[in-house]
Amino acid sequence: MIVPFLWMISTSLKSYADSMQIPPVWIPPELHWDNYAKVFDKIPFMEYYLNTLLMTAGRTVGQLLICSIAAFAFACMRFPGKNIIFIALLSVLMVPSQVVMIPSFVIMRDLGWLDTFYALIIPGMFSAFGTFLLRQFFLGLPRDLEEAGKIDGCSYFGIFARIYLPLSRSALVSLAIFTVMASWNDLQWPLIMTSSDEMRVLSIGVSTFQGQHSTDYPLLMAAAVMTTLPLIIVFIFLQRYFIEGIAMSGIKG
Q1: What domains are defined for the chain?
Q2: Mean pLDDT of the region 158-164
Q3: What is the pTM assigned to this prediction?
Q4: In Å, how far are 68, 130, 156, 179, 234 from 173, measured between CA atoms?
Q5: Which domain of life is it from (predicted)?
Q6: How far is the C-alpha of 253 from the C-alpha of 132, rounded, in Å?
Q7: What's the confidence (pLDDT) of residue 69?
Q8: Long-range pairs for 129-133 at CB < 8 Å and ≥24 separation?
Q9: Share of the chain above pLDDT 70, in %
């Protein structure tokens, strides 16, 4: 697993001639640290970085809030047509994103949201996958907790905020990691919805180093290293919660 990352770092420190050498070499004769500085000269990297950070944070906070509320409703509340609505929600997972891309573009255009953060953030603030993941986690919690909350006079919102959310930290972190990874690497949606450099994100910026006839591999890899590093750091610090959210039912001890 680590070999591609090591090769990415190695290539980012090569000259263009060294990157095209056959057979390839792992350690170049001269380390070109200036490749990282050249990335900032080629594209407005920090502006792309900030746009990506805002888009990722907005989507992640939105999914944690909206998906957790929807998951609690499907897991604990009773209302007419609950199962039918949930099945319809899950059917969204079977629809390829390319199928709804043109209707989504028309909606964003009619709302006047093209080339704005509204188009980058709001459509990604909810997902059927996030609702399904948290619903399954909530169903694994003992119903006695909900009944005890009702006896103590808690409303549904009180049960959700005071009982279910504190016990669902690992599941919420898992959803946050999935959302951060998907948003940070998203290319197709920002490429279609934005047209100015002021609204571009990192995935589009990195792709500009790949040309039709030639590719500057050292600069491409240097940009990829700086783009990938935040995700690696996030996963390293949160991997324990990530594994718990997938493997555990919600109660320990």
Answers
A1: 45-247 (1.10.3720.10)
A2: 85
A3: 0.82
A4: 12, 11, 23, 10, 11
A5: Bacteria
A6: 25
A7: 92
A8: 129/93, 129/178, 130/63, 130/67, 130/71, 130/175, 130/178, 130/179, 131/67, 131/70, 131/71, 131/74, 131/89, 132/71, 132/89, 132/90, 132/93, 133/67, 133/71, 133/171, 133/174, 133/175, 133/178
A9: 93
